[in-house]
# Entry
Amino acid sequence: MTTVRVVVAGAVFHEGRLLAARRSAPPELAGRWELPGGKLEPGESAPEALVRELREELGIEAEPVDRIAGEWPLKPGYVLQVWTARLLEGEPRPLEDHDELRWLAPENVGEVDWLEQDRPAVAEAAARLRAG
Ligand code: DCM
# Structure
C-alpha cells in the first residue's frame, strides 16, 4: 500500500496582500516562487503543520483560515494542499529554504514566476483578496 504524503502551503494574507516566497533549494526549484509551507509530520493536521512551517521558515505566527479547494500533484507520492492564513504576529524573514519574500497586491500576483503546481491556488487566493 502506498501512502500519499501531504505538503501544506499557506496563502498568507496581510493588509490586502499575499505573501510570496522565492525558493533557494533544491536546485531544480531554486528561483521559483511558492506559497510557503512544507510536509506534514506524523500525527499533525494540515493546519498544525502550516503553523509550524510558517514559524520555522519565516519566523511568523499565522492562523490558518480556510482550505482552498483542490489538491495538486507534486513529485511522486506527494500532493499539495493550500490554506489561506492570516498573519498574526511578526515580520516574515527568509530563515530557511527561501532567499526573497514579497507581499503582492492581487493585481500583481502575476509578477513572479510561481511553481506551476501553486498557480491554481494563487489565482484563487488573489480572487479572494480582490473580493475583500
Ligand atoms: N512544494 C510546492 N509548492 C509549495 C510548497 C512546497 O510545490 N507551495 C513542494 C516542494 C518540495 C515539497 O513540496 O518538492 C516539499 O517542500 P519543502 O521542501 O518546502 O518541505
Observations:
- The chain has two helices and seven strands.
- Residues 7, 9, 29, 34-35, 37-39, 74-75, 80, 97, 115, 117-118 surround 2'-deoxycytidine-5'-monophosphate (CB under 6 Å).
